[in-house]
User: Fold this.
Amino acid sequence: MSELYDAIVVGAGPAGSSAALTMARAGLKVVLVERGSFPGEKNMFGGVLHRLPALEEVFPDFWDRAPLERHIVKKGVTFMTGDSSFSTTIEAGNFDRPPYNGYTIFRPRFDRWLAEEAVKAGATLLTRSTVDELVYEGSRLAGVTILGREGKLSAPVVVAADGVLSFTALKAGLRRPTFNEGQMAVGVKALLDMPREMIDDRFGLVRDQGFANEFVGCTAGVRGGGFLYTNYDSLSVGLVFHLASLKTSGKTPYDLLNQFLEQPQVAKMVCGGRLQEYSAHVIPEGGYDMIPELVGNGVLVTGDAAAFCNATGLNLEGINLASHSGVLAGKAVIAAAGKGDFSRKGLEIYRQLLNDSYVMKDLKLYRKAPHMLHNDRIYNEYPELVTSLMEYIYRIEGAPKENISKLFLKAAREKVGLGNLVGDALSAWRAL
Amino acid sequence: MNIDEIFDFTSFTIDREPHIVLDANVCVGCDNRGCTNCCPARCYTWSEEEQKMTFVYDGCLECGTCYVVCHRKAFTRWRYPRGGFGVAYRMT
Assistant:
């Protein structure tokens, strides 16, 4: 195990495989190192795969070939309390015409396929290999070692695509040794088998149409939210919690998930589903302010390892940002290889490419969103306010009605306080 | 659906050598023990009676929660399992 490569990519997720594919197609000798027994074995998400402009450029027939599930035509938000809920949905004709806005996918299938595409482009894939140490010769990076194995993989540059905890970035001195739990979330998910026809009928879908719904107020006061996505013949249902809030609550993710599944309106949606798999993962939700150093001597950081994740409450983006940053890291390595300079200075072009892309622009735009979402009223009082007000509006029982705007102000005063209401509206306006 | 059922459907290839090693003595003096409620795989159990933290890594989902929430640096080792070991998602 001492073969010399042009580049080592640590982690065969969307960021790593996009980077490897980009470099391999440009003729570089790349090794893609994955700790799972196949790519995607360790990966979970509760989400939707959106457009991938950078990858589509190096991989024009991507959408024709990728193993996808349903395309999302219907998106909903549900405000929820113990036994009531108020939902809004948007179903747009444009969401049902290609190019589609987003798809549900299975990570063990999708990630494996993308890594195999990198292999077809010429990359070498090493599975069952956990990267252990970075090896330096002086200040110059020389390669990596694999946990439990002799020797090393040699290359002048490493792309750290090893996920949210990135020990590669840590060992390169690019991320801080401890995380701020206020900037992290944990997602838990149940995958429920359900016949395709049942899903179509229940959610009003035909052909390959899919539905994606987010929930607020379903986390027993813990900052966070819920999600439900339709696959061809299964549902992905889960919750995401801000870790600092979960920790002080004393509540457990699996109890809250069970409560969520038993909430009467959710229970009807998942009824008849059979549990297939339970999964969990930490999510970097701190946004722009938690991004580590992205470039070191012989090291670039991409994807979740770089905290490229946008959680604004309405949209949750991660895989698209990971893939985009992976392609840009690949391009930066190609440029550095052209000059034979893999020092921090030689790789600095990566930062420039990122700054010019939607990855950094969006992270900057939504810089205040994580702060806005650290407001407990969003998870308690507001869902209650919305559901109780709607319940009142629709209740007809032969008693004289009150003026709705007066009623709203009265309810808002009681539940959240008018000062808070104005402050929160301003904070949301500024953040989004 | 009940809790026990939730944990039964995820597959693992368990390594004899633990990927996470906890110095449980540190946990005795911890004022918080956020790991016990935050871990989605309930790997951490605190016994008030025995004043003792029990940690099992068998059902670890490798999610990273304990690495983030432990503020007492109680881990003498926290790394991912050797290649091929640990949690194995099939269709999540």
Notes: The mean pLDDT of chain A is 94. Residues 389 and 408 of chain A are 7 Å apart (CA to CA). The first strand of chain A starts at residue 7 and ends at 10. Chain A is about 35% helix and 25% strand.
